Amino acid sequence: MRKLLFTLITLFSIGLIACENDDNKNNPPNNSDFGEITLKVTGDLNANFSGMADFHLLKILNTESWEVNGHNYNPQTFSITISDIAVNGASQRPKPGTYTIGSSTNADFSVDLTYIPDGDFINTVEYSTSLLADLAEPAENRGTLTITSSNEDTVKGHFECTAFRIDDDLNIVETIEISGEFTANKRRFD
Q1: Fewest 10 Å CB contacts: which of 21, 96, 148, 170?
Q2: Is the Cα dihedral 127, 133, 134, 140 positive or negative?
């Protein structure tokens, strides 16, 4: 269920970006409209990624999520979301400072990375700092996010964390270390 929800949110986000570029289908997005993100991944997956980054506040019923989203295109080989989720509360753009990364229940932010080998969405591999087991027994923090500047239009920062891939029985089957930096511009819906 969690994988399906994450996949749907990722596809919805990609769809919104694609809709903004319908007039220029053959041209890649203008990088001045989007920010940039670079990632280094080590462990059970070793890769370097770079692409565009943006941020937004998503409100669905009584849940708010402030997110930095990053991905590449042509082909898309990764998608990453750094999020602060608030149920029955308010989520907001963070001020400069250092924040914890871990489970959405016990840390300031959580991180979800989707690896898309060769742009093949059927074979995606998902890694997360949040585990379902955290609901019963919260784990220690899995990393830090440092926001170096933050205003209404642009958020800059860097982060490092440990993320996991779990099997259908909720066993950890892979562990990765992610480090990255980003300059994310506010997502425009006009």
Answers
A1: 170
A2: negative
Q: Tell me: the pLDDT tens digits for 120-168?
A: 999 999 999 987 655 545 566 789 999 999 999 999 999 999 999 998 8
Q: Does residue 68 sit within a domain?
A: yes
Whole-Å CA distances, 103 to 2, 56, 161:
13, 20, 11
Taking residue 85's Cβ as centre, other Cβ atoms within 10 Å add up to 17
- Residue 53 · residue 36 · CB < 8 Å: yes
Residue 82's pLDDT band (cuts 50, 70, 90):
very high
Residue 131 included in any domain: yes
- The amino acid present at 42, given as its one-letter code, is T
Query: How far is it, in rounded angstroms, from Cα 52 to Cα 35?
Result: 5
**Domain span at 176:** 2-22+34-186
70 in a domain, yes or no? yes
Q: What is the DSSP string of 7-39?
A: HHHHHHHHHHHHHHTGGGTTSPPPTTTSEEEEE
Domain count, the chain: 1
Helix (H) or strand (E) holding 5: helix 2-20
In a domain, 28, yes or no: no
Amino acid at 163: A
